[in-house]
Amino acid sequence: MKLSFSSEDEKFRAEIAQWLSDNLVGEFEQLKFRGGPGDEHMFPEERKKWEQKLAQGGWTCVGWPTEYGGRGCSIEQQVIFNEEYARAGAPGRMGHIGEGLTGPTLIAFGSEEQKQKYLPGIIAGNDLWCQGYSEPGAGSDLANVSTKAHFDQEKGKWIITGQKVWTSLAHESDYIFVLARTDPDSKAHKGLGFFLVKMDQPNIDVRGIKQITGTCEFNEVFFDEAQCDAQDIVGEPGNGWAIAMGLLGFERGVSTLGQQMQFQNELNQIITAAKANGSHQDPVIRQRIADAHIGLKIMRYNSMRMLSGGGNNGELRQEALIYKLFWASWHRDLGELAMDVLKAEAEILESAPYNLTRMQSMYLFVRSDTIYGGTNEIQRNIIAERGLGMPKEQRLIKNS
Q1: Is 67 among the catalytic positions?
Q2: Which candidate in 251, 319, 345, 350 is catalytic?
Q3: What DSSP string describes 130-163?
Q4: Which of 7, 159, 292, 397 lies 20 to 30 A from 259 at CA?
């Protein structure tokens, strides 16, 4: 694992730092430190414009190969980009799913036609994507998906019917990638397809799920014979599971650095609040702040370690298995720390319309971190079975 940076890397750092300083002004000034967990509903249109501003400066998809429109940045430079993005207080990325998941997946597994069709819109910051994986009966157990897809020879289209749930920012997205069953008689991870679907069609219904924060970042998405072109399946029918797992590798990849950027901003806000109200003088609070700082550093170094040996097909080292469990638990604890730092103010909303403060909203939102993307219990099973080679958990068999 390499932790130092070359002189060329430091020139790159100065370049991105200067660009952010020059451009996070005017209409974008209000976006500083906004759009993180529990705050994703804020300034959606302005943050879309920010994606396009990044694109104009050549700062989207910095890690993509140059032949596909990226900068071809090294891992070290991608780390630097995220560090400086955090330091400048730049907003949460609306294009994260497209840039961090869809694009790398198409580069690794997609056809040239698919790359030419979809990658330019992501690079330009024009096309936003969401993720169609989880279902009411297939959350952590993703292989249990029941959404179905069949090919209509007469129309020359794939027809998709089913439901996805907990789809982040589906109401703001232009496209969705969908894991669906192409073989109706198949079970588990066999017989699946990975589809690229346009959201703006009458056969797709997006319904917001109101959270305890009062906002609707998550959605249900209903497909009632939704359509996509024959060429919009990635890989072969029945091979969707391999594509889906490759994508999850990218989710545990460089995109984690952007997530840590948001965590650092939240920790900084908590420290500022502790200094302002005197909580920093409490030795227990001081120790918990120190522990949070240490945990975030561990998170960063483990990310560097797991990225140092990965390939370009989403495959990561075994260290990646612990990442979701670690950050979800850490972030949950950070929310509790925020409320303890605020003390009585954590229970108070100052005046009408009684909107939650950013720290209150963050605390409530992070309760979901240990559930979505695979619960902590599922993550422990994955570590035990895949990482340590332990016997699989016994499953109860229901009597028919």
Answers
A1: no
A2: 251
A3: EEE--BTTBSS-GGG---EEEEETTTTEEEEEEE
A4: 7
